[in-house]
Amino acid sequence: MGDMSGEEVRWLTAEEQVSWRAYLRGNRELDIALDRDLQAAGISLSEYELLSMLSEAPRGQLRMSALAELIVQSRSRVTHTAARLERRGWVVRTPAPDDGRGVLLRLTDRGRAAIETFAVIHVGSVRRHLVDVLTPEQFAALGAAMQAVRDSYAADPAMPDPAC
Amino acid sequence: MGDMSGEEVRWLTAEEQVSWRAYLRGNRELDIALDRDLQAAGISLSEYELLSMLSEAPRGQLRMSALAELIVQSRSRVTHTAARLERRGWVVRTPAPDDGRGVLLRLTDRGRAAIETFAVIHVGSVRRHLVDVLTPEQFAALGAAMQAVRDSYAADPAMPDPAC
DNA sequence: CCGCTTTAGTTGAACAGTCAACTAGCGCGG
DNA sequence: CCGCGCTAGTTGACTGTTCAACTAAAGCGG
Which of A63, A141, B98, B133 could cysteine-pair with B141, CB 3.0–4.6 Å? Predict the structure, then answer.
């Protein structure tokens, strides 16, 4: 992996440090702000993301594993989160018709109503804390950069083999 | 809440959606990758950040509250994290000389040795997953955008008054 | 069609993070 | 110099996340 043996460490330059710190802290601040706004309405950001993916899916339903991949959460976490949302009556679990192991998570009518309310709050929050504080060019550049990160992550799913 | 009265909701445009999603997911993937690399070495990213701030501070020491603000974590969280690091022998708590309520957290020699090891791993991780997958321009733009987010957050510490 | 490995998902215990309540020292107004 | 509110930090209970172990079905090779 990386630099195996006696490689020199390539420290960040002063400018890189500045960008990196801005990313790290800004990121945290943004997460806090977005979560705070949704929490005030009674849902967490990660729960919202799950519901949101369901609401966009063909019949308001998705396989647990598909969901996990979409929102970048562990299977276990999705199981727990889904259980919480199920208790609230926003989703239901049904066995997948084609695969005996699979589970389809489906948005209920109440779930759909709920997420429509949350979406209004959330979009306002995203605008206020992110979109509207950047120029359109800045925002586009941010998106492009993060997409590049995603692409490289996808190319390297779970770290190269130690044997490399 | 959100839009006070009969305001229209300003949904994200298709392009904005794409950027926003890339940010949200990419961000999560990056956090996972960075944390995974540090965890393999035996420390979490947030613990690392705390030690890192201490290592850069004048006498390797900082007030709890200063630390909390620097790494954007709640006071409570810093207390818990510091307790964990103290158990590992990497930091010590001492009463602040000038303020009877205050606590100074100081890096021990073992703590400094530890963080030097972690730093090598971490910088490699940051390069591999972020810096090196972007052009210098992209990375600078990312930093600038997130700095703008920070600035707006700082201007608006805990949400505008409902009276606005 | 019988093992074997892989994939889907769940479970419960351990751990980290949040929240609200609390202690204690500071600092100000009178 | 006393009372009151504010700031610093801690605590413990609760909630959410992670991790490793588990069940069960699918797929694959012989």
Answer: A141
